[in-house]
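Let's sit down with a protein and look at its sequence and fold side by side. Please make up or recall a protein chain and show it to me in full. Label the sequence line and the structure token line clearly, so we can match residues to local backbone shapes. Go ahead whenever you are ready, and we will take it from there.
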Amino acid sequence: MESISARGRILGLDAGDRRIGVAISDPDRHFALPLRSVIRDRGGTEFAALERLIREEDVTEVVVGLPLSLSGEQGAQAGSATAFADELRERLQLPVHMYDERLSTQEAMRRVSDEPRGRGNRRERSKPQADTDAIAASIILQAYLDRLRFEGASFA
């Protein structure tokens, strides 16, 4: 796994059938922050939304989660994610990397369920519902960023 550019924001995507979770790194590539989800439709408006975000945020690379089975095999979802990444590469003319996303959605749901609750152990009604797709994208992106740092570290 090699990052093309050493600096600049990276966009992380968790591409599902109905929604795409979106996360972004800081310019120094230390932290992944969940942004929002983009709704997928047959008209391809999700690509226009992603292109706009990439321009606005000066994104230099994209990471798409690769949904592998627990045994590491690729199934139908992995094929769909790979096709999505290929289309992004063609449309964006940016480096698009695939990164193992095993258990990222489950981890995102666990994080949401572990959020502090209001009085009486009920969620506060004024609190917005967490975007688990964007959180899953941030988990994928953070793992990718950590891997880049680990591979770039010198162990003398």
Summary: The domain at 9-113+130-152 is CATH 3.30.420.140 (Nucleotidyltransferase; domain 5). The first helix runs from residue 45 to 56. The helical segments are 45-56, 76-92, 104-113, 132-152. Residues 63 and 97 are 5 Å apart (CA to CA).
